[in-house]
Amino acid sequence: MKTSLLFNAMIIGGSLFLSAGSGMAGDDNGAKSIVLKGGGMGSITFPHAVHQGIFVDCKPCHDLFPKESQVVDKLKTEGKLPKKNVMNMCTKCHKDLAGKDQKTGPTRCMDCHKK
Ligand code: HEC
Ligand code: HEC
Ligand code: HEC
Question: How much distance in Å is there from the Cα of 38 to the middle of ligand 2?
Fold first, then answer.
């Protein structure tokens, strides 16, 4: 157990180092992949870099919450961001694009939430 915790810490440390390095070239784009907490439904692995490749700006996500690690869960805990607000923003875009027959992301619960 102790060994695996240490191993995880090393991986996290490594990815933080990489994102800090790429940030020096311009804006800090944050981590390439981010795990979001999803309550009892299980967490969501969110491909951040994939979305940054699609959109020229950082909206609509960072209109809802600042560019900080673990901020979604923090604001929800503080009652400053209603539960599922971010999720509804995610699924709305995926559904809108699916309706236009465009390349899109998941809309089914378990395609985002993993136990
Ligand atoms: C489709 C949604 C979405 C888009 C578009 C998006 N982000 Fe993010 N971003 C997120 C989420 C979700 C988080 C994680 C918040 C959390 O951990 O609670 C995040 C976190 C961050 C962080 C904090 C560090 C980290 O890695 O957690 C930075 C910096 C960041 N984003 C920069 C950007 C920039 C710059 C753009 C535009 C080029 C952008 N993001 C576009 C969703 C998005
Ligand atoms: C596109 C990905 C995605 C899909 C599809 C999705 N979710 Fe979520 N869900 C999220 C994200 C991201 C969060 C965390 C942020 C938030 O609460 O808005 C979340 C949070 C939640 C939460 C926790 C709220 C809390 O904090 O108590 C529940 C419950 C939930 N989702 C249920 C569902 C159900 C049920 C479905 C299917 C109808 C579903 N989700 C589909 C991404 C998704
Ligand atoms: C403005 C539109 C938009 C928003 C907002 C958005 N997405 Fe997506 N998402 C997309 C598109 C378009 C794709 C398809 C990308 C591709 O296949 O190239 C995608 C793909 C995905 C995928 C699958 C990636 C893969 O490699 O298969 C996941 C998971 C995902 N989104 C989760 C989320 C979550 C979680 C959020 C909210 C934090 C979110 N998305 C917000 C447009 C959006």
Answer: 6
- Determine whether the shortest distance from the Cβ of 59 to ligand 3 is under 6 A: no
Q: What's the angle, vertex CA 26, arms to CA 25 and CA 28, rounded to 5?
A: 105
Residue type, 90: C
User: Is 105 a pocket residue for ligand 3 (Cβ < 6 Å)?
Assistant: yes
Over residues 32-72, the pLDDT tens digits come to: 999 999 999 999 999 999 999 887 789 889 999 999 999 99
Residue 92 CA to ligand 1 centre (angstroms): 18
In contact, 107 and 98? CB cutoff 8 Å = yes
C-beta of residue 48 within 8 angstroms of C-beta of residue 69: no
